[in-house]
Specification:
By secondary structure, this protein is an alpha/beta fold. It contains 11 helices and 14 strands. The strands form 3 sheets. A 6-stranded parallel sheet has the order 3-2-1-4-5-6, with helices on both faces. A 6-stranded parallel sheet has the order 11-10-9-12-13-14, with helices on both faces. β12, α9 and β13 form a beta-alpha-beta unit.
Length: 352
């Protein structure tokens, strides 16, 4: 039976990772529609900086910080799209009557409706993944996971594809950037997301991004625009230096906001990126994408790939989903380093 009734006040704990947040957009959209039909109120509880990706969407929806326990107060229902104990504890402490989520992180007793997540027996399925040591949680597209949770509230997702549109702010920021670059608005360009957290196994090496740009330059008669996230500026500088004489433009001082990144992705002829948040923004605005998957298990994002090409090198050690590679020598970060820049360039050229 649905926990949503007339005038319901629903709080949704949103994901803390940008890519997951974008993949949750269809569920948030469906919840928004249903709550409005019921004359209720919807609050998105999460990282308020990441929630800026929804600027211009979800009219009338409140946003609140997950770090503030008061964010949960006054709500009738909490839908937890994250699996942390803390999220369930915060909702219970705030007196939220109905608390729905997956029974993970030893928190099932805090939930009024708990769903057992699917598991897989340890063998490596379809030649993807390391051999397990027993049953593991089954890697599934995150959007499908969110839709399963929403269904427990009687809310079903009719349109499962994530959809974003650049906001007016994002378009204005991009126009200012292009005036600085002396680039003509509306003309095609290739976007390279070259950022990555320092030492992250999920980041493609900056030197290799530079080699991608150098390989593209003779064949792609359009500017190459490089972008990164806050704190990733060193990688962008290194990638641009490694590009040599390639005609590149760096989105620095300041780095692109999430609003501008959406506009950048929407205007690009192709977006090249590691398997990270910008990949999902690019997909949601309808861009063509070439995504480099290293330690990330592609089964977590194995939907809506019509305009996405995945590049990966299968290795016995992965996909491990680790943030830091524990191996040494030639094996260290091999899942990313062995993706040749020439193959990335060929994929970009073939994506037209």
């Amino acid at each position: 039976m649905s926990a949503l009734g007339r005038g319901v006040k629903l709080a949704v704990r949103t994901p803390d990772w940008l890519g997951d947040l974008v993949m949750a957009e269809p569920v948030l959209r469906a919840l928004h529609v249903r709550v409005r039909e019921l004359g209720g109120a919807l609050t998105l509880v999460g990282d308020v900086r990441l929630l800026e990706v929804f600027d211009g969407a979800f009219e009338g929806v409140d946003r609140a910080s997950a770090a503030d326990p008061r964010s949960w107060r006054g709500h009738d229902v909490a839908l937890l799209l994250v699996n942390s104990f803390r999220s369930a504890w915060a909702a219970a402490r705030a007196g939220v009557r109905e608390r729905i989520g997956y029974a993970r992180d030893v928190r099932g007793w805090l939930l009024t409706t708990s769903i057992a997540p699917a598991r897989e027996v340890g063998a490596a399925p379809l030649n993807i993944g390391t051999v397990g040591r027993g049953e593991r949680y089954l890697p599934r597209p995150y959007g499908a996971v969110c839709a399963e949770l929403a269904a427990s509230l009687g809310v079903f997702v009719a349109d499962p594809r994530p959809r974003l549109a650049p906001s007016a702010r994002g378009r204005e920021e991009l126009a200012r950037r292009f005036r600085r670059f002396e680039l003509e608005p509306g003309k095609p360009y290739t976007l390279l997301n070259v950022g990555g957290r320092a030492g992250s196994a999920k980041a493609y090496p900056a030197q290799q991004w530079g080699a991608v740009a150098a390989a593209l330059a003779p064949w792609r008669d359009e500017p190459l625009v490089m972008v990164c996230g806050p704190g990733e500026e060193a990688a962008l500088h290194e990638a641009r230096a490694a590009a040599g004489q390639a005609r590149t433009f760096a989105c620095l001082e300041p780095v692109a906001s999430l609003a501008e990144l959406s506009a950048l992705c929407a205007g690009a002829s192709v977006v090249l990126t590691a398997d990270s948040g910008p990949r999902h923004i690019a997909n949601a605005v309808g861009a063509r994408v070439v995504s480099l998957c290293g330690p990330s298990d592609p089964r977590h994002t194995a939907d809506h790939l019509e305009r996405t090409q995945l590049l990966r090198v299968p290795l016995e050690c992965g996909p491990c989903h680790r943030e830091r590679c524990p191996l040494e020598g030639e094996a260290q970060h091999a899942c990313m380093r062995r993706i040749e820049p020439e193959s990335v360039a060929r994929a970009a050229l073939g994506s037209r």
